[in-house]
Amino acid sequence: MRNAPPVASQQQHHQNGSNNYIEMTQRKGMEFPRKNLRFRETIGSGAFATVYKAYAYSILKTGQKTVVAVKVLKENATENDRKDFMKELSLFKALGKHENLVTMYGCCTDQDPVYLIMEYLPNGNLQQHLRSLINSNPNSNTYHNQVMEHQLTPAELLGFGIQIAKGMEFLASKKCVHRDLAARNILLGENNICKISDFGLARDVADSQEYEMKSRGRVPVRWMAPESLLQNMYTTKSDVWSFGIVMWEIITLGSHPYPGMTPRKVLEAIQTGYRLPQPDHCDDEIYEMLKSCWEESPAKRPNFHEVRVSLERMMEADQGYLQMDNFHQDNYLYLEPDAALAEEI
């Protein structure tokens, strides 16, 4: 692929109000000439969009070639998919820059297909990175050899959580609910800087402080708060619940939440008060913090500022909150990424 992905000719950018988002990006100077893009290989694909590696000429500096990631709607995307894509594009611009959010460089909305141009992060996502630490040798399933080989310390694991909490604290300050926070949606930049990505489900809730999802199909059940699963309600506090699941992923090096349980069983278990169990290598104080994120009542959950401060205090105290020599990968389930995305209840 040298010039562009397939053109989604059946989609018209003026349909059903999408033009509002296009006009916003054009007014705010984000429009980038698509002739200055040279597409390379596919680097990711989701339900309704594909992400390509590309070269963008003069996007950051005149005459300079920059490696970028370009998100493009698939040809078979529905009109609702298209609306979500345009909202993601608009939201990126409205949020502005933050160290722990993926940066938007520009967009191409003058014709179909619409392009969302973002910074390119070659180090993959956090879930992949954590799983790369798992020793493939079945006779050596402790963390000791992995920490020696990869130079990743328990403090760095806590550091991932702190960075994500900082990014989510920023989103909350902008009245934005992410709705799909998971380790697979955290990309890694240079020096393992965490960057929250995938704003396709995110919503601006500045007016109501909450968002009600009017329709649903396949959803990330294992990361969702009970009020989201049962009432389709999303707030910053439902993102806090998801953050607790992400921390559990980090602590267990990218394992699959609620192993051995169907989505229906997960929902039933959560309703009866079941929560992910305390890992053997995890200190009580960290687990209590996770459980606070999983309070049934959203009002009882901490906010992201409180979560961040708590994690920073733990890291500064350095009291052995994670005893990774006691970590045993056989206690956890590691599925292929596609099997852990979204499920029907």
Automatic annotation (TrEMBL):
Q: Which GO terms describe its molecular function?
A: ATP binding; metal ion binding; transmembrane receptor protein tyrosine kinase activity
Q: Name one GO biological process term.
A: cell surface receptor protein tyrosine kinase signaling pathway
Q: How does it sit in the membrane?
A: Single-pass type I membrane protein
**Where is it mostly found?**
membrane
| SUPFAM superfamilies hit by this protein | Protein kinase-like (PK-like)
Alphabetic keyword roster = ATP-binding, Disulfide bond, Glycoprotein, Immunoglobulin domain, Kinase, Magnesium, Membrane, Metal-binding, Nucleotide-binding, Phosphoprotein, Receptor, Repeat, Signal, Transferase, Transmembrane, Transmembrane helix, Tyrosine-protein kinase
- Per the UniProt entry, the Enzyme Commission number(s) are 2.7.10.1
Please give the function described in this protein's UniProt entry: Receptor for basic fibroblast growth factor.
Q: What is this protein called?
A: receptor protein-tyrosine kinase
Originating species: Holothuria leucospilota
Phylogenetic placement of the source organism: Eukaryota, Metazoa, Echinodermata, Eleutherozoa, Echinozoa
